[in-house]
Write a structure and sequence with these properties.
Jelly Rolls; alpha+beta; TIM Barrel; 17% helix; six-stranded antiparallel beta sheet; binds 2-acetamido-2-deoxy-beta-D-glucopyranose
Length: 835
């Protein structure tokens, strides 16, 4: 007989085991918390419309992350996407770094804290305009490795080792979705489909192995492979590009996903500044969803900065702004941010019908079409698109009239009211400006100390730490520095046939910059032109009878990061290296390529981690600061600019080199590299018609990059901040100064019956330069009144409503601005205000 108490115990035991059983069932179901069908990614069994944005953690700082992510959430994103950067984490084999801005676990947790998901693209080949595509150089140099990204067992072992370690780190912190974390998708390899054929049969075998290996890691969320039209199951094939509306995944069970929707483009040394219009980016995104897409990733959402030596090659600038919705400094890039926010919000309001509804398309002629999504609960959502590049359309749809401008898409979430059109921008345009250091009333010029880099060992003595009779690919030096010295000695006598009064040194160069010295004397330098990958250096030299010391300094600005077998592309001085003698019209050539060469990587004052080596303070001189001296160090102290606006360093006047603030590398600089391209579009860029990276460019004839981001967290309060520059080419530091980046003026727009907003973040509106309600012409900075405008004085209305406020919202209607008939032309309220 059981006593009541045992009975109770029994019952509770029974209940507990029932509960455990139940929990077990649930956790089995949890194994597929994130899954997908042919329509969409599903989370907890629900189809989702997901809008993501790329933010690469090493391109900002942990102090910037919360603000960037908060803004991304405000912009209507569901998820942040990032790559993992192998060469940053494992710069030397089995020597790891996850500190500071490499603390990707902290990055993921910050995203989690803001309630967003994470798309975790491990790669570990990442492209990303990142040095060597993210591969560590030691990998390339390992015994038994020839090519990367193919069925090479040494490579595969290392790739698996790193991938597995990263996955384990993530699992340990319980960051995958089925562990309660924010990561809903992961990626293996990257855009391999673009290059696979160049690997022959091995290519397919390799990508199948990648899929198996990834799958075996058992991460509980789906894996994706972008640009991989034959992605083996269960990998999901996704699309990267300017437009993905025509993309269909290879498996009917895979949803249509746009993993890289390029929001702009990167910049190159010697190139001008490419940008992508807001209207066209919104158009590409809206078209993608109109035609069945359910997952979009804006690449980049925040581009940021290539600190240190992380920029890709051969010529990627330190700024990786990308014309993204958040600019390099983390500020809103308006109108792009606001216009996409409205689009993202409109799309989210249609989530259910877009992921469940039946689709029908109606061709309305002249490239106009209507798409209707209808779900079983009677709800519907519609798109009207006009893909004609020149002709605006006025269409009748379900009894209503709609204006659909050329190359635009309208969203009608209830199939009746147009809440959004990609070409009708209602977001203000911010014009940022740089202000000089406000720390002092009248900023004094910076006081410089200077010293030379001691290069006697290489240019005079020719002392290296490695010798060979073969010229060396700069990658063989394990990427410990931008600088690699090539040294040889040539014995020459006056009786030699080569001897003449017109002798030249000729070097076939594959690196980005070459400096040459003969017998300790500088001969000259040359650098690669944007768009051309190698050049021939040829300069007159003076030799002496007997031994002559020839020293070449090859400088990289980042190793190749993309292309078929990009990892094999050589960089540096690979020959021929020749001495060319001329006697009358006779030319005699001595080839030095297979001489005995010695090599030395790096400079004395920079260690292999790109940190500054401590030098005796007495080496720094303060008198007669030289200008136009190459291989020169400059140092100064400065006051941290007041306030919280982002800080930038104006390096106008300098040549090329590297910069550190308080010991932290802010990257390579090269303000003397001027964009020669005459491709700049006068009067702005027409958003209509297919975009590519040459279509819209600005800043022709200007330095590719004059300003360099100094994150606030690199600075200390007060005047004890230190800036150190290594000037490789020679320059004049007297104009160097720190500035803050703020919004200088803003232009607001609103079509009739909408609300115009203008704002001066952190300060107040001080003036109104232009205001009109009617058919305004021109663009921000050059507005002109049209033929018709409201009867009231728009300027006076704006001044009254806005001056003294940080933000003001004004209704664009006749009640406010007076009646006016613009005979069919859509009226707009347009204003330009000063912050
Ligand atoms: C990676 O390789 C090292 C040996 O070089 C080994 O100790 C380590 O366990 C490996 N890591 C993984 C995740 O396989
Ligand atoms: C675009 O519109 C113009 C003018 O109506 C027309 O001539 C042209 O054929 C259209 N193009 C396309 C691709 O529909
Ligand atoms: C969607 O299409 C299917 C197959 O054609 C049909 O059975 C279903 O009734 C449709 N649903 C709606 C809401 O139209
Ligand atoms: C110069 O270098 C380039 C790139 O490495 C190579 O293609 C070319 O053949 C070289 N020129 C000569 C004359 O060897
Ligand atoms: C200029 O534009 C053309 C085509 O639009 C392109 O082929 C070329 O590469 C561009 N040149 C530069 C320097 O960007
Ligand atoms: C704006 O609202 C007014 C008053 O409701 C209306 O008469 C007018 O047609 C509207 N204009 C537009 C473009 O919607
Ligand atoms: C996304 O947009 C970029 C341009 O911003 C474009 O190059 C890219 O092809 C688009 N992605 C796809 C998958 O089409």
């Amino acid at each position: 007989m059981h006593s009541p108490s045992t009975m109770m115990k029994f019952t509770s035991l029974f209940l507990v085991s029932l509960l455990l059983l139940l929990l077990q069932c649930i956790s089995t179901a949890n194994a597929t918390k994130v899954s997908h069908d042919g329509r969409a990614i599903t989370i907890d069994g629900k189809r989702r419309l997901l809008i993501c944005g790329a933010i690469h953690y090493p391109r900002s700082t942990p102090e910037m992350w919360p603000d960037l992510i908060k803004k991304a959430k405000e912009g209507g994103l569901d998820a942040i996407e990032t790559y993992v950067f192998w060469n940053a984490h494992e710069p030397f084999r089995r020597e790891y770094d996850f500190s500071g801005n490499l603390d990707f676990i902290r990055f993921i947790k910050t995203i989690q804290d803001h309630g967003l998901y994470v798309i975790f693209r491990i790669g570990p080949y990442v492209c990303a305009e990142w040095n060597y595509g993210g591969f560590p150089l030691w990998l390339h140099n390992m015994h038994g490795i020839k090519e990367l990204r193919t069925t090479n067992s040494v490579y595969m072992k290392e790739m698996q080792n790193f991938t597995e370690m990263i996955v384990n780190m993530v699992k340990k912190e319980k960051l995958f979705y089925d562990q309660g974390g924010p990561i809903i998708l992961s990626q293996i390899e990257n855009e391999y489909g673009n290059v696979m054929t160049s690997y022959g049969h091995a290519g397919k075998a390799y990508i199948d192995w990648c899929a198996k290996m990834a799958d075996s890691l058992d991460i509980g969320v789906p894996w994706i492979m972008c640009q991989q039209s034959d992605a083996p199951e269960p990998m999901i094939d996704t699309c990267n590009g300017w437009y993905c509306d025509q993309f269909t995944p290879n498996n009917p069970n895979s949803p249509k996903m746009f993993t890289e929707n390029w929001t702009g483009w990167f910049k190159s040394w010697g190139g001008s500044d490419p940008y992508r219009t807001t209207e066209d980016l919104a158009y590409a995104t809206a078209r993608f969803f109109q035609l069945g897409g359910t997952f979009n990733n804006y690449y980049m959402y925040h581009g940021g900065t290539n600190f240190g030596r992380t920029a890709g090659g051969p010529l990627i600038t330190t700024s990786y702004d990308y014309d993204a919705p958040l600019d390099e400094y983390g500020n809103f890039n308006q109108p792009k941010f606001g216009h996409l926010k409205e689009l993202n919000d409109a799309l989210h309001s249609m989530e259910k019908v877009l992921t469940h509804g039946n689709v029908s398309h109606t061709d309305m002629g002249n490239s106009v079409s209507a798409t209707i999504y209808k779900s079983s609960d009677g709800k519907s959502g519609c798109f009207l698109s006009n893909t004609n590049e020149t002709s605006d359309a006025r269409v009748s749809f379900q009894g209503e009239i709609y204006d659909v401008p050329a190359w635009s898409v309208s969203l009608l979430p209830d199939c009746k009211n147009e809440v959004y059109n990609t070409a009708k921008v209602n977001t203000e345009t911010w014009v940022t400006e740089k202000k000089s250091n406000e720390a002092e009333e009248e900023p004094e010029a910076l006081k410089w100390a200077w010293r030379y880099e001691n290069i006697d060992d290489t240019v005079v003595k020719g002392k290296g730490d490695k010798t060979s009779t073969k010229l060396m690919d700069q990658k063989a030096a394990n990427d410990v520095s931008d600088y690699l010295w090539y040294m040889t000695s040539v014995n020459i006598e006056e009786k030699d046939p080569i001897w003449s009064h017109d002798m030249r040194l000729r070097v076939n160069c594959t690196g980005q910059v070459l400096h040459a010295y003969v017998n300790g004397e500088y001969v000259g330098r040359e650098f690669v032109t944007y768009g051309i990958f190698h050049y021939v250096f040829e300069k007159k030299i003076k030799l002496v009878p007997g031994p002559n010391q020839i020293t070449l300094l090859s400088v990289t600005t980042g190793f190749q990061h993309y292309g078929p077998k990009f990892d094999m592309i050589e960089n540096g001085v690979l020959g021929p290296v020749e001495i060319v003698g001329r006697k009358g019209d006779q030319t005699v050539i001595t080839d030095l390529s297979s001489h005995k060469w010695s090599f030395k990587a790096g400079l004395k004052s920079i260690d292999r981690y790109n940190n500054l080596v401590k030098v005796d303070p007495s080496e720094w001189k303060t008198h007669r600061v030289p200008t136009n001296r190459k291989m020169t160090w400059y140092k100064t102290t400065f006051k941290s600019p007041r306030g919280t606006d982002p800080v930038t360093l104006d390096l106008e006047g300098l040549g090329k080199g590297l910069a550190w603030v308080n010991g932290k590398s802010i990257g390579r600089y090269w303000p003397s590299n001027i964009a020669r391209s005459n491709n700049c579009t006068k009067n702005g860029c027409d958003y209509r018609g297919k975009y590519d990276n040459n279509k819209c460019v600005r800043a022709c004839g200007l330095p590719s990059q004059r300003w360099y981001h100094v994150p606030r967290s690199f600075l200390v309060d007060g005047d004890q901040n230190e800036l150190v520059l290594f000037e490789e080419f020679g320059g004049d530091p007297s104009e160097v100064n720190f500035q803050t980046v703020t919004v200088g003026k803003t232009c607001g727009y609103a079509y009739e019956n909408k609300t115009m907003e203008v704002s001066c973040p952190g300060r107040s509106i001080t003036g109104v330069r232009f205001a009109s309600f009617g058919d305004v012409q021109g663009s921000c900075g050059s507005f002109q009144k049209g033929d018709c405008q409201g009867k009231k004085d728009a300027l006076a209305v704006l001044k009254k409503e806005c001056i003294g406020k940080e933000k003001c919202a004004v209704a664009a209607n006749e009640a406010m601005f007076g009646s006016v008939d613009c005979r069919g032309i859509k009226k707009r309220l347009v204003a330009e205000v000063v912050c």
